[in-house]
Predict the structure.
Amino acid sequence: MPNHLKESVQRLVELVSNTTEAFTAALFLLDDHHPGVLRLYAWHTLSQSLVTDATIPVGHGLVGWVAKNEKATHATRFERDTRAALRFYTIDEPIKSFAATPVRHGDRTIGVLAVDSKKQYVFTDKSLKLLDDFAVAIGRSLAMGRGRIKLREDAEAFEGVHGLMARLVGSRDVDEVSAALRLGLQGIVPHEKLLLALHDREDDLFRLHDPRGSGVEGDPVNLTNCRLGHVIGQQRVINMPSVGDARIAPGVKGEEWGSFLGAPMLVNNETVGAIGLFSRRPNAFTRAAELALFMVASTVASSFAWLRTGAGAPHPGDIDPVTGARTLSYALAMGKPFAGRGVVAVINPIGLLHVNAELGVHAGDAALLEVSRRLAAIAPESSLLVRPWGDRLALFVGKGGASDALALMRAAVRAIEEAPILVDGADIIMKACAGASLAPDDGVGAEELLIRAETACRMARRIVGERIALAGDNGALPELTSLKG
């Protein structure tokens, strides 16, 4: 199998481990050369006893049972010898929870995705649903790879997906899901317009929802006469590199757009909605963008399915439990637009995904906490330190101009890079990048400033040398100017 495909799938398995807080996440695939045998293909583990060349006959152990019966399994009080029950450890690890689900290509089971933990009851219903979504994404990735479609080997994109998925999982209502997409999706799959189609259970119709607000809000989506409807009806990703005069969605004129990308939101093979992205450039969306949007759509579907039950996710409160910074919901609830000389800076400590992979999620959290402390130490008196999502931290400053934003970003990057971060006896040397935005004289909302600062931060990451950038103040996605010297 091509190396680029194996690396892409490996990143997905790492996301599985980080998102579910697993001790081990393992992907087994049916061996093409040995029928009836599962072979360990990708994994992420904190164990020193994992059998990295493990093979499991179909029907043997819990993993083999899932492959044979093509059904998921879940154990919250695991009390068996892991060597016999799991068959991929050399010692009896004290595993307390286990979950596994089939990986499919079409109607055929091609493997098993499994996670375990040393804690009891760690895998919630939402965790199990996310495990199913990841299995779908992995199956799709393998199908695309085996069709010789090259996936982008860009770790930054997967870090962005991870951060966005973390925000979506914690969303409490439709507005928070919409806010997460507005803030996080642009940096993963660049686009100029975003539409959601959501299932209205009262009249059994799919209706448009525009996270940024427009005249199409609430319009019904016909499943047969527009491309967004085809995404829903056919339950598949549709990528149109050239739109022409095609009908894409209600109230959207095809001739105004160059490209369209849509992905279905599926829950247990039922479509609960779709995400549509639009670009004015032809050929704007790559195959990697298809996979990224499919993964995001699966997580959005899980969030909406969870919210439909009325349970909702736990309220995160005003304080982020990992860093002690304020939550995004608290920052946005301030409500007042920044008028003239307001600054928002987004700081990205680079490499936390690798810390999670090498030392575990607890080490990544410890590193992020230290980064938060260092930023709090250099923050202006009137500023607010916020963890908007994932590995991002932001500083909201009530007053300041371009020179203040430049000084703030430099101080933030220097605070992170000037000394190693000690975690579990290991010195972590971390790099950082930062982006900032300035409020125009007529004022603008905190959320809009955050979007601009995040866009600048992503640009800064690609700069050779001093990785800081400042966004302009005359548009939702303004031109960006790197500030050096």
Notes: Residues 326-482 form a domain with the Alpha-Beta Plaits fold (CATH 3.30.70.270).
